[in-house]
Amino acid sequence: MMRLRREDPRVVGSFRLHRRLGAGGMGVVYLGSDRRGQRVALKVIRPDLAEDQEFRSRFAREVSAARRIRGGCTARLVAADLEAERPWFATQYVPGPSLHDKVAEEGPLTAAQIAAVGAALSEGLVAVHEAGVVHRDLKPSNILLSPKGPRIIDFGIAWATGASTLTHVGTAVGSPGFLAPEQVRGAAVTPATDVFALGATLAYAATADSPFGHGSSEVMLYRVVHEEPQLHGVPDALAPLVRACLAKDPEERPSTLQLSMRLKEIAAREAHGLSDGRPPAQRARPERATGRLAEQYVDQRTERRTGSTPVPRPPGQGHGGQGQGPQSGPHSRPSSSRNQGGAGGPSSRPTSGRTGGRPGPRTTGTGRRPSRPDPKLMRQRLIVFVVVTLIVALGIAAAQKF
Length: 402
What we know:
two-stranded antiparallel ribbon; 6-stranded antiparallel β-sheet; 14% strand; alpha+beta
């Protein structure tokens, strides 16, 4: 937050202004409060835009659309004055750093954190799109990490679904590096436009950098349209999904509902992996299965259930460690792999299991497992116990007579 400047107003509508929260292409955002002490983020439109009647009309439509948005992942619109000399609107104040500041100060987030934030943002976008609104400028600085979860802010350039992204000929609205290709071309925006921006935002959360690098606005916009994103550093569990969000063709991107469901699954799986108390060597196989997601994301769950399922073997067999063994071959038979011996191949014996009526060589770290108790031995022990008990009882009875 910054102190108010001399030129800044002290009161707007019924709100008293306290600090500057930031400034953007449309105006200045202030921290304010009403008479009850409720804090708001209040944006006052720039004077030059306020004189543009076309902008005022568009701004009025956007505020009307923002009123229709329902959902816990957005900053709720509190009040607005569209007829003021400088139009303004106030939204619920969200305490907490932006995603941009969080990553810049503390570094990239973990895969579990990214998936959890992405799932919440996807749910928020579902509500936004159901209201017939496209945000059009989703980026790390427009996502606040509040104690109650991430919140999407700054719908200042939001627009109805299907509207063009050009304010003037050749001028795209939004932030280079997070704009979708259709925005750069001046085509109609759709919910898929926000999906592209969300993909770029998740990539930033994982790498602390834009997936299209750095450069002038012209260079960045060219890369968005003609070059593939650089996702080095994005966790394997997220990279295929992020790449799908960044598809050039809007039709090839997942929907926000699909994103929410997939990201919830990834968040749960990654959180479980982080809480797993086993040594890293014992977690090697699940991590390797996660790495194959980059090749075939759609079949990830099948791969994890089949090709990645570890076959239990007695410790000390060979030096290959986990991830090696006879089960990795295409013709392995799980029914007999339990008793396979040797360092890296099947047993030389044609059959496994019981031999000569005795249990097979299934051992633990302390040696051979004990076999079942012998029924004959148990009967003998029972007879001895009964005889000893009778002798003791007779001795006590005899002692009592004397």
